[in-house]
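Deviation from plan, reported transparently: alpha-D-glucopyranose complex.
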Amino acid sequence: MTEVQQDDGLAFPWWKRGVIYQVYPRSFQDSNGDGTGDLRGITSRLDYVSWLGVSAIWISPFYPSPMADFGYDVSDYCAVDPLFGTLADFDALLTEAHARDIRVIVDFVPNHTSDQHPWFLESRASKSNPKRDWYFWRDAKPDGTLPNNWLAHFGGPMWTLDEATGQYYLHSFLPQQPDLNWRNPEVKAAMLDALRFWLDKGVDGFRFDVAHNIMKDPNLADNPPAGNTAQWHRFAGDFSTQLHINDKNHPDIHVIYKEIRKLIDSYSTPGHERFMIGETHVYDGPTWAALFGDHLDEMHMPGNFGLLKTPWNATAIRSHVEMIEQAVPEGGWPNYVISNHDDPRTATRVGAKQAKVAMMLLLTLRGTPTIYNGEELGMENVAIPADRERDPWGLRVPGLGLGRDPQRTPMQWDTSPNAGFTTPAATPWLPLADDWETRNVAVEKDDAKSILNLTEELLVLRGTHPALAHGDWEAIGGLPEECLVYTRSTAEQRLLVALNLTDTEHQFMLPYTGTGLVITSTGKDRTGKISLTFMVLQPNEGILIDITGAKLA
Ligand code: GLC
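Because the crystal trials were delayed, the predicted structure below was used instead.
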């Protein structure tokens, strides 16, 4: 790893310097009392986002949509669903965000539309419709079976029969989400136009939903069985019984992303760099790294979801981070995700007592972290009564804990009715967590030891400490399995991060002499000098220490 010494805007544009904050619009802030969050609600909370200190918000889809998959089924790429507001509301949000130096990343859904999108309505109208080839239409095999064996993420086969024309159409997710055929030049042109629409408005970037899905094997060859090979980042029922090598990430994907990147770059100007991050559930280092492009001419950052499936111990986390550090191409930039609207809350996955340690890990690794709204409060998954379950995945594939409602419950802002998320009389679209009266922004802001204040502090520290912002990352070996210790260093500064990943105290020797200076700790109960020879970590403790100038023992 070469050490980066230059710290100018070009080497470190905003998307490398800062932190992305994911806003799930349904659950962030409701402004009109219908129980569902909206764009005006987000705008009204920008002062909070600004206080927190993130540099960008990524807003999950707010396009017109029948909401079969809560907005990831888009029926118009260039408009706003009335549930969320209007295009004018979006323009106002963008202006207000930019006024606070907050970038706005729009969620772009390239792989599939809604089955109610006019393109699909035309495509399904007849076999000879000019848009027929915009989607994947196939006859049954001669023996009457499905065109191939592909299985959908959300249960069942990827093929649904259209009775009227007698052919099957392909959908990687719900039947209400037919896949677009990116090999058709008209589809590509239409989608690039949709990107231009948002770029012309001045958005700063895109999060490409299931970005690697858009290119499939041109012959739609069957997927082989998975055997014991781990699939994806968690078990997803039948879907996990196949190796998904033909239904996504065909090498031709690189041609498309180079073209998309060119478009995005054509809008970039110094000081207003535009950006693309992919939702790329690709867990093999080299295949993942290839999505940066062989000349860093594809995604600025292929999303890295590896920590979601990494066991919570030092060996596993260390080897994941080392794998990423090794895989990232020269000039490329790592990124980490520990939760999002699709995955369990961190406090639930690793244990509530570890939530601060997890936040310290996320915010002290090299690369751009994404924080999912509510994680900064330590929110946990919420048990959803059966009659309030909404997520189609959980409803279609029950019994495996795949439903995503528990991590999508409303933000907890204060102690007023409905936690300040919506008006007192409204019923929030998903129930609030039971702990909302004690776990909310207002209460946690007043508690110096809260995870909220720790998050805010770490974000400030990333801005003031070059070693955290862009220094090299290196793990310290030979320590107890329960403790992860690493350094972040530039030529001038060296910091040490020591994390206890368990609920018991641990003591160990460090390879240094002398003392370092505590910058902060998860318990906010450490100050001043600390031994760099012998370390005692309290249960669930993380410490950030300045060890600049420390000598190796
Ligand atoms: C992505 C989104 C998820 C959605 C799926 C289908 O994985 O993050 O929420 O259901 O794509 O669009």
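The longest strand covers residues 483-489. We consider this an acceptable substitute for the interim report.
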